[in-house]
Write a structure and sequence with these properties.
- The chain contains 19 helices and 28 strands.
- The strands form 6 sheets. The protein has a 12-stranded mixed sheet with strand order 11-10-14-15-17-16-18-19-22-23-24-25, with helices on both faces. Strands 2, 4, 5, 8, 9 and 28 form a 6-stranded mixed sheet that branches. A 4-stranded antiparallel sheet has the order 1-3-7-6.
- Helix 2 crosses helix 16, helix 5 crosses helix 8 and helix 6 crosses helix 8.
- The N terminus and C terminus are likely disordered.
- It is α+β, with helices and mostly antiparallel strands.
Length: about 800
């Protein structure tokens, strides 16, 4: 299946084509436990089939959890279920949730037709598309070359699962979990009480394995020697999932280890990590190597890996009530852009050291790098962070600038200490991530791209890693290396044509007209190899449009469907994790939805993270209470309205003291968490850019330069149909019913949908969004293919 299948708007997760549609559907639907499918089957008089563990067209690994809901009065013994021509009726049984369900195994690769037929011939069918355990599912052609781990049994890096055990010690000085040997149990095993009131020994089973050509890791409370059934898990499991993410934004052409822990860059010594806290409360905790931006900065591939590991948990451990993402730095980047591009993947987010996405962040970093280059400060490949910061203090004087003036142009301002360091540190730290000539894991030195010696080599920068999303550059702009190898490199969505660097500083009298003119005359741009060139940088087509279409640039158009707790502390001195980015995300929510009430800021004095106690404990408890309230809301309000209405009264913007104690309501303010600007903010601002306030108006100003030139509602080829003015795809349905009593079940007919990107979903009935993959409103992720839809059908009597 191509990339176009990944972002089909409002796709039914596996229900029938006869589902009633109410106008334009949200891409999120009622929670599995509250979707009340049985009455729908009862009203229609036909059985209804639903794939629970994933979307029916996005199944992987050869198995799926399937439910058959029957009309009122029909016993389960009266239905016959087949997979193709094979009877699988015996796989089904009435489960503890009183639904007729089965873990259907033996799915072949590709198309599988599952039918459920009553004694009188009435029935239903569904097409389940099964993908390899090694992928891909929807991320497109897999990245090559790829080096599997030793012992892999095939080219997809598949390998048997392995299990081990850990435990929490009663010794308070022992913070981390320790190895546990079931044959020789230690005597200091602590007890834990889950959020469901169940008290069990704090023993954890860790599962590791391979999916999508890389590793995953799952941990859950587990009592060795006791049975765990998918239909009846051990009592310590609360049916909730916490997903951990990594940091940075880089690439690796080989399997790596999944990230684990909160990812807080400053660390949280002396206290249990959020993963341990979650396990003690009964959560399953999971991570995939590919959800780590530090080895996979590709939103589609990240989302694919999360979908696959969640399906495995559904198949092997039990139902998932809801999923919470947690991450710092590149981890927050991963969860935020995935939650927006693939709504339904997460139900709640805990974001720290916030980066909304890689696209707009890349724009900021390149601006920093160009300013550094203008002043002669090394931006990558030489020196150290310390020497770079020191150079940033003296280099401006060679051009007649003061460090204060540079800070005025970059948005760092006078309060940033050491003065003007953040722009230089950010350029040094991040610019190299895009360098195509660097060597990356899985690639030998002889394989690496070099413009003259090896123009056909592997380009290890993040742009070419995202080739399937951005698309190659057109032949009209190829450089000599591209002409030599006969194909375009990945296009860049970054552009600085027309940017008037330092305009706000000029208007405020902070720099002279001569400085302004010289800066904008000689700041120049970068070529496709990210080397300085005399011309400004022009974004490639179709890479610019694809940056918005695929979610590489996060417009927050779907983020109103998830509650977000954002933690932040001061960024000084020059820690390259600007607190402004959380306000930029808030402004995008305001612009897209008219409110940011689903985003809560918890701030404090701890650098970057604000408050380690709230990061590891309080935020998890807060987001869990918030989601539980949404989950219990049976009203007919849209999910986004529930997210706002059901927020607990004590979960709001707050300032903490760094030790878990609230200082006051509202954010801490500039004396604790200063909020600085960026070069693009200064380039459009007519007010002094020294220090931003927390007001909505200033926050809105912070994203003026990030505003998309391509708005939601536009039709971007190859997506053949524009979305509505709201950014949501119009959806219609038709189903064909025939009456009469057949002697045998006739052929099922497919239902149809209006518009290629409009996919049928059940109307929300109660509760919160389904814990499965949704799709962006009116979006098409494919850079090269149109969006297509398949259909499910009923068998008429």
């Amino acid at each position: 299946m191509g990339l176009g299948a990944a972002m089909r708007a409002n796709r039914d997760k596996g229900g029938q084509g006869i589902i009633s549609i109410h106008g334009m559907l949200l891409s999120m639907v009622a929670a599995l436990a509250l979707a009340v499918p049985a009455p729908a089957a009862a009203r229609s008089g036909y059985p209804r089939i639903e794939v629970l563990s994933s979307r029916a067209d996005l199944v992987a690994g050869g198995e799926a959890v399937v439910a058959v809901d029957l009309p009122r009065g029909v016993k389960a013994s009266r239905v016959r279920v087949k997979l193709g021509r094979r009877s699988i009726t015996r796989m089904f049984a009435i489960r503890p949730n009183r639904r007729d369900e089965a873990l259907v195994t033996g799915l072949r690769l590709g198309r599988n037709v599952l039918t459920a037929v009553l004694a009188d011939g009435r029935g239903a069918r569904i097409v389940i598309t099964n993908h390899p355990n090694g992928g891909p599912v929807f991320s497109g052609p897999q990245i090559k070359p790829w080096t599997c781990q030793p012992g892999a049994r095939d080219r997809k890096c598949d390998a048997p699962r392995s299990f081990s055990y850990l435990y929490k010690s009663t010794n308070p000085k022992q913070i981390d979990l320790l190895p546990y040997d079931p044959a020789h149990p230690p005597s200091d095993v602590a007890m834990t009480t889950t959020d469901q009131g169940v008290t069990v020994p704090f023993i954890v089973r860790e599962e590791t394995g391979y999916q999508d050509r890389s590793r995953y890791r799952i941990e859950v409370l587990y009592q060795p020697g006791k049975r765990w059934s998918r239909w009846k898990p051990q009592r310590g499991f609360n049916h909730k999932l916490l997903i951990l993410h990594g940091s940075s934004c880089q690439v690796a052409y080989t399997p790596t280890d999944p990230p684990w822990s909160s990812g807080a860059l400053t660390g949280t010594p002396g206290m249990s990590d959020i993963s341990t806290v979650a396990l003690g409360r009964g959560f399953s905790v999971a991570s995939t190597a590919l959800d780590n931006s530090g080895v996979d900065c590709n939103v589609a591939l990240q989302a694919e890996s999360i979908l696959m590991v969640k399906e495995h948990i559904w198949d092997s451990y039990g139902d998932i009530r809801y999923t919470i993402g947690e991450g710092c730095s590149g981890g927050s980047l991963a969860e935020l852009w995935m939650a927006n591009a693939y709504p339904g993947l997460y139900q709640g987010l805990i974001a720290t050291c916030t980066f909304p996405d890689a696209g707009s962040t890349g724009q900021q970093i390149i601006d920093y790098a160009l300013i550094a280059h203008y002043f002669g400060v090394p931006i990558a490949g030489s020196g150290t962070p310390e020497s770079t910061l020191a150079e940033a203090q003296v280099a401006p004087a060679t051009k007649g600038w003061t460090t204060n003036q540079v800070a005025d142009v970059t948005g760092d301002a006078e309060e940033n200490l050491p003065i003007g360091s953040n722009w230089a540190f950010s350029a040094y730290s991040y610019f190299q991530l895009a360098d195509p000539e660097q060597q990356c894991p899985g690639i030998s030195s002889g394989q690496v791209y070099e413009p003259q010696a090896n123009p056909g080599g592997v380009r290890c920068g993040i742009l070419d890693w995202d080739l399937s999303l951005l698309a190659p550059r057109p032949a009209s702009v190829w450089d000599s290396q591209e002409r030599q190898v006969g194909h375009g490199f990945a296009g860049s969505p970054i552009d600085n044509v027309g940017v008037q660097y330092g305009l706000g500083a000029l208007e405020n009298g902070q720099i002279t007209p001569a400085q302004f003119v010289d800066l904008n005359t000689h700041i120049d741009g970068l070529n496709i190899d990210f080397r300085p060139q005399a011309q400004r940088t022009t974004a490639d087509t179709p890479a610019l449009a694809n940056g918005y279409r695929t979610g590489i640039i996060n417009e927050a158009n779907n983020l109103d469907q998830v509650p977000i707790i954002n933690l932040a502390g001061p960024n000084d001195p020059g820690l390259a994790h600007d607190s402004y980015r959380a306000f930029a995300l808030r402004a995008r929510l305001d612009r897209a939805h008219g409110t940011h009430a689903n985003q809560v800021m918890w701030q404090g004095p701890a650098p970057i993270i604000g408050d380690p106690v709230e990061l590891n404990d309080g935020s998890l408890v807060g987001i869990d209470r918030w989601l539980a309230a949404i989950y219990s809301d049976h009203s007919r309000r849209p999910l986004a309205a529930k997210v706002i209405a059901d927020r607990p009264a004590d979960v709001h913007d707050q300032c903490f003291d760094g030790a878990g104690n609230k200082v006051h309501d509202g954010i801490c303010g500039p004396t604790v968490v200063p909020v600085y600007g960026t070069p693009r903010i200064v380039a459009v601002s007519r007010s002094r850019p020294t220090k931003t306030s927390a007001s909505s108006s200033r926050c809105a100003e912070a994203t003026t330069a990030l505003r998309s030139p391509l708005r939601n509602g536009h039709s971007f080829s190859p997506c053949s149909r524009p979305a509505s003015a709201t950014g949501r795809s119009p959806v219609s349905t038709s189903s064909i019913r025939s009456r009469g009593r057949p002697t045998r079940p006739p052929r099922a007919r497919r239902s149809t949908a209006g518009g290629r990107s409009g996919i049928l979903r059940p109307q929300p009935s109660a509760g919160m969004g389904t814990d499965t993959l949704g799709s962006a409103r009116g979006a098409c992720v494919s850079a090269w293919r149109g969006c297509r839809r398949g259909g499910d059908a009923r068998i008429p009597a």
